[in-house]
Amino acid sequence: MIPFISRADLSEQNIWIKHLSAAMPNEMIVLFADLTPEQKLQCEIAIVANPDPDHLLELPSLKWVHSVWAGVERMINELSSPPFSIVRLVDSNLAQTMSEAVLAWTLYLHRDMPTYAKQQSKKSWIQQPMVRAQDRRIGVLGLGELGAVSAQRLVANGFSVAGWSRNPKQVAGVECFYGEEGLIPLLRQSDILVCLLPLTIETKGLLNDQNLSCLPIGASLINFARGLIIDDEALLTKLEQGALSHAVLDVFMQEPLPINHSFWQHDSITVLPHISAPTHPVSASEIVAENIKQYRLTGNIPPAVDPVRGY
Question: Model-level pTM?
Answer without folding.
Answer: 0.88
